[in-house]
Amino acid sequence: MWSVPESADDRTDWPVSPPPPWPASVRATLWWHRSTPEAREHGPGGPIVPMTLAMMVDYLDSPVGPYREILASPVLRRGLIPAMALPFIAVDSEPSVHGGREHWKLPKVLADFSGDVLGSFTAVGDGWKVETSALPRGPRLPIVGGLTFAQPGENGDLHRASARLRGRFRYARVTVDAEGPTLSRWLRSGTHHGIVITSGSMATGPARTAR
After folding, report:
1. What is the C-alpha to C-alpha distance for residues 193 and 81, in angstroms, rounded to an integer?
2. Do residues 133 and 118 touch, judged by C-beta distance below 8 A?
3. How far apart are CA 30 and CA 78, in angstroms?
4. Side-chain half-sphere of 199: how many Cα atoms within 13 Å?
5. Of all residues in the chain, what percent carry a pLDDT higher than 90?
6. Using H for helix, E for strand and C for coil, what is the string for the chain?
7. Is 134 in contact with 119 (CB distance < 8 Å)?
8. Are 172 and 137 in contact (CB under 8 A)?
9. Which fold does the domain 22-204 belong to in CATH?
10. For the segment 105-148, what is each residue's pLDDT rounded down to a tens digit?
11. Contact status, residue 104 vs residue 161, Cβ threshold 8 Å
12. Residue 120: C-alpha distances to residues 52, 57, 80, 108, 137 (Å)
């Protein structure tokens, strides 16, 4: 499965999860920055948008229960709507690991999380660590939209899926400290533009395979 070392795992005996769609209530912090020169090495190849997008998510409920997550796309895949390609994603739920790998070709691994996703939050895995501190500013505003991801698969195929989101957000400055074999080179430490989703509902649909 396509991944960076931080998301590599040969385990296969994960608890089985239900198929999509996966509805969920969420709180989250998202941030972005211009991609580093090294980011392209860990991207999906082909035409890209040189922007890195990352997020910490607290799923308050889901088909596999509550869990927390970190994910990051080194670059965005170019298209009418730029799509994330995720070689790095980690959660604290074994059924969620199964769901990511089985239903969406996402290289989920287990990690430990602590703190408040809308404030100071930490994710720690095998040989890596990401800390975030979000400082929201301004009013809470409505948000309606979605995120698309496109995962490289075997034999050159592509697995596309979308997550639809509705809720409320605030602009934020997000301070990030990232450590890891590759993360320190493409998930830039420092303070970045971002948003916090103070409350929201999200539904992730099934992946569609194309070449």
Report:
1. 20
2. no
3. 20
4. 3
5. 93
6. CCCCHHHCCCCCCCCCCCCCCEEEEEEEEEEEEECCCCHHHHCCCCCEECEEEEEEEEEEECCCCCEEEEEEECCEECCCCCEECCCEEEECCHHHHHHHHHHCCCCEEECEEEECCCCEEEEEECCEEEEEEEEEEEEEEEEEEEEEEEEECHHHCEEEEEEEEEEEEEEEEEEEEEECCCHHHHCCCEEEEEEEEEEEEEEECCCEEEC
7. yes
8. yes
9. Acetoacetate decarboxylase-like (2.40.400)
10. 999 999 999 999 999 999 999 999 999 999 999 999 999 999 99
11. yes
12. 21, 13, 34, 23, 15
Domain locations in the chain as residue ranges: 22-204
What is the residue type of 72? A
Bond before 21 cis per omega within 30 degrees: yes
Give me the residue label for tokens 């190849």. Answer: 45
Beta carbons of 17 and 95 less than 8 angstroms apart: yes
Judge whether 173 and 23 are in contact, CB under 8 Å: no
Q: Which one, of 45, 39, 57, 9, lies nearest residue 204 by Cα?
A: 57
What single letter denotes the amino acid at residue 133? S
Phi, psi values for residue 40, rounded to 5° = -60, -30
What pLDDT, on a 0 to 100 scale, did the predictor assign at position 154?
A: 80
Residues 6+ apart with CB under 8 A from 80: none
**For residue 17, how many C-alpha atoms fall within 13 Å in the half-sphere facing its CB?**
21
Give the global pTM: 0.96
Kindly state the tokens that stand for 132.
């975030």
